[in-house]
Amino acid sequence: MQTIKSIATLLAEGKISSVELCQDYLARIAAHNPNLNAFVTVDAERTLAEARAADARRAAGQANLLTGVPIAHKDIFCAEGWLTTCGSKMLANFVSPYDAHVISQFKAAGMPTLGKTNMDEFAMGSSTETSYYGPTKNPWDVARVPGGSSGGSAAAVAARIAPAATGTDTGGSIRQPAALCGITGLKPTYGVVSRYGMIAFASSLDQGGPMATTAEDCALLLNVMAGFDARDSTSLERNQEDYARDLNKPLTGLRIGLPKEFFGAGLTGDTATAVQAAIEQFSKLGATTVEVSLPNSGLSVAAYYVIAPAEASSNLSRFDGVRYGYRTPDYADLTDMYEKSRAEGFGAEVKRRIMIGTYVLSHGYYDAYYLQAQKLRRLIANDFAQAYQQCDVILGPTAPTTAFKLGEKADDPVEMYLSDIYTIAVNLAGLPGMSLPCGFDRQGLPIGLQLIGDYFAEVRMLNVAHQYQLVTDWHQRTPGGF
Ligand code: GLN
Description:
Bound molecules: glutamine
Order of helices and strands: HHEHEHEHEHEEHEHEHHHHEHHEEH
């Protein structure tokens, strides 16, 4: 298996060049992307130019650990010179004139961009089916969804057509697709990764993070992505962290919290069995378990679907056909131009969110919905604070089911929203969370295990995940045909 760690070693030993590596991955993308639709934009010349620069940097003795290792980026990150569509018709012609902070961090590390990956439109969705560019397919079964909204990134890593990718997570969009595609993904504590240049969906929830095959790779990628950025007013000024520093720490004495609300009637079948087996594995590694309670977690989906649309309705008001993006070709006057541009440029799910958001923020409804949801958000965060008095890390499933069929939930938004029932509370509280593979169901589809840390507990969470991956091989399994 090619982890970015192992690729970095090959590069350091001079056994392969970045150009050769990128050529290899670009060939794999060319062969498999028509089937998967994981990438929306590939620009081989641009990638190879970056690879040549990385090789030159190495030859000059100025390489960092990951210099020359290619990475794919979710198409929500503005990248200079690249088409940046956010999965929308609205931005179908938008070539970004600047780099998101995350992109400039990867450039500074010398990591070439392999391309931009598909996603639900404006990151609204759990299946990558709302993309204007068509759905991404799950490499484990191309009749199924890869999860979403970072489904393109997850499918690319799972099919090994990219060694790693970036994602963003507003309510589960890194962890849920990671689970459905059998890879490892991490959503950091809110404020750890700058949102500058990351197209905004719900600003108080959005957070970028790494998606890779292993926890160790996620740690190395987070070392590149994290850090203070004055251009994001919610970016946190903290000491430089080495997220890989404790990977090898034994788990003896680790207290794992099992929220009783996560292990109730909703958790059934193969997912329940796999999560239970993972708990036993952790016991063998020296951890103890304790039952904890998150009494308000059942209200997290409801609170989220007030808060996230409220913020989205405000954030998306900038797409008016004037400043940039899509403009309708035919219009009578200014108002008509706004209306038609937005009517034609946005898809159904985005419109639904804008309408809900506008409604819950409107005079007369603000107190009844938005304010109530904010109060719930506080209660949900308090539940976690209580739980962390008894444990070091919380464990549970990432998603209620394995990958579902394309189209299966497309007509039922509420059913789709419930895909994030185990992940959304983490965003509302601003906590770090990750998903890692912990088994397969009877149909051979991957199952994800979720770890939730206290604020800034990424190092501990990655340690827990890495120790698990040292004694299991779920993360090494690859889908047939890739
Ligand atoms: N599925 C959730 C939504 O549709 C979360 C999306 C995300 O995390 N970007 O809003």
